[in-house]
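sanity check both lines:
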Amino acid sequence: MRWENLTEGSGGPAALFGADAVVTRTVDTPEFRGITFHEVRARSIVNRVPGASRMPFEWTVNPYRGCSHACVYCFARKTHSYLDLDTGIGFDSQIVVKTNAPDLLRRELGSPRWAGAHIAMGTNVDCYQRAEGRYRLMPGIIEALRDHANPFSILTKGTLILRDLPLLREAAGAAEVGISVSVGFTDPGLWRTVEPGTPSPAARLAAVRTLTDAGIECGVLMAPVIPFLGDSPEQLRATVRAVAESGATSVTPLVLHLRPGAREWFTAWLGAHHPHLVPRYERMYAGGSYAPTWYQRRITRQVHELAAEFGIGPSRRGASRALVTPERPEDPAPAGATQLSLL
């Protein structure tokens, strides 16, 4: 593993943690069987988003690297290669945990150089993945943001966010807080094969209902819409209907994009489960990581029409600080303390 390239003494300016700061633990319990945690003491926790990402925020916090959600399409898989970790099974089972994230964030927010900019979380890997149940980093992170009245947003597939509902309400009383839950489809069969480590779509939408009933506005990022598997008119209608019934304040569709790292893993999965679709995907994504603009626009139009029918509007631009969908964003560079963008 390439820890030494990212530690003090490596000779590089972008050391992420001290040379003696890595502890590797394999936890042999039913909940975490097969998962290895690499506990690190990070040197910084607030990351700047590359300008090329065109996102409506500049800063992110990511307490974890790797994600046990095991979504076969996850765009963040490439980040594991920076540590010489596998971007397939390794991404799903080798989880880097920044154990000092809450204390480090509190220190960085208190710096005279920090101007109180919006901070986005969950835009790389999910901060409410299963590891959070063990390490409980998010309560300290939210408390730090609350105490500094710093605006923030969270995007998640994890229902564990409900554990922190009281803290979220307190934080929302001090600063702008945006919560979004990712639900790309409601098909149980598709969910079990492409998002095997996540709570079910129904459970996620129930969490949306709980959040909104508690007075915290919650939007839904309808992502990803998966071509030829989750994009039929009937599937789109069922998903938007369920989103509306959850009480979500907005729904924003995002078509599957396949960046290097994710593309290879998803293609291998597609070949094993739906080999007849491989040629269609090769044609659709021949131009790069993103589906053709005409297809993205068609899906967006269909979802917005359904949203209007069911009485739920599309996301206001920048409303939750995490859901703007550029048609063809640039791929960010991996160098330095930067954040791989969501879209």
